[in-house]
Request: fold
Amino acid sequence: MIHALGGDDIVIGTTGDDHIYGGAGNDTLTGNGEADTFHYGFTNAGNDEITDFATGAGGDVMGPAPVGGRIVR
Ligand SMILES: [Ca+2]
Ligand SMILES: [Ca+2]
Reply:
């Protein structure tokens, strides 16, 4: 699990399955392969960008929808 906490962060996951929490701030998140889960089940998620979100079977998973923020892909 990777939690970037507050502030504007650049997060790069491992080559395995990661659970990534951007935390508050405007984060740039990269899953870096495999089936990663991006979690947004909290308020004040900011405006995050996920650089390599993969849809479909074996792809990445979006956790609970952002509250008060938005996702840019
Ligand atoms: Ca953050
Ligand atoms: Ca990964």
Summary: DSSP finds no helices and eight strands in the chain.
